[in-house]
Design goal:
Elements (H helix, E strand, L loop, with lengths): L4 E8 L1 H5 L3 H11 L2 E8 L3 H7 L9 H8 L4 E9 L1 H9 L12 H5 L8 E3 L3 H11 L11 H4 L5
This protein binds adenosine-5'-diphosphate.
């Protein structure tokens, strides 16, 4: 079966900002050919983090995750492309930087688990909910790239 065009939600976490890696990380996504259709800097509030991280809210480390995620603003992005959700997770690498392959973002830039630079949606359901959580419809943009025009698969 051919690839489908998907959208995925990215958060560049406080360690990306603190370590001056925003440009390097965004560059990885651009070089892959993903289309940036939304991008802004925001401060994460308590309530939105409780929703976003509901699946780890009962973990002992959650309090620290929350403090970390609120320690600076974050950069939120929506990326679009063929099978973008899995493609971005592949470029990002697994949660733990020390397990991530060299060449992936976490493999190249992160050694720990808490400070792993980027959040990316992990399923179609999560992507839909997360894009809706962080972006208004009028903050998402449609435009054509040359690579869209010559997309024949599927
Ligand atoms: P991912 O971000 O790769 O989808 P999870 O959804 O499992 O990973 O976890 C959310 C975030 O919580 C991780 O990206 C990481 O920042 C943090 N986290 C996960 N597990 C731990 C842990 N054992 N100790 C500290 N922080 C953790």
């Amino acid at each position: 079966m051919g690839a489908t065009i998907q959208r995925t939600l990215i958060l560049l976490k406080p360690d990306a900002l603190q370590r001056d890696l925003i440009g390097a990380v965004v560059g990885r996504f651009e070089r892959k050919g993903l289309k940036i259709i939304g991008m802004k800097m925001i401060r994460l509030e308590d309530a939105v983090l409780d929703t976003h991280y509901a699946h780890i809210a009962d973990k002992p480390f959650y309090k620290d995750v929350k403090e970390f995620m609120m320690s600076t603003p974050v950069v939120a992005m929506v990326l679009e492309g063929q099978d973008a959700i899995a493609a971005v997770r592949l470029i990002l690498g697994p949660t733990r930087g020390y397990e991530a392959d060299a060449g992936s973002i976490r493999g190249d830039f992160s050694i720990g688990v808490a400070s792993n630079l980027v959040h990316a949606s992990d399923s179609a359901e999560a992507a839909t909910a997360e894009i809706d959580r962080f972006f208004n419809v009028n903050e998402l943009f449609e435009y054509e790239k040359i690579t869209d025009k010559f997309f024949y698969e599927g």
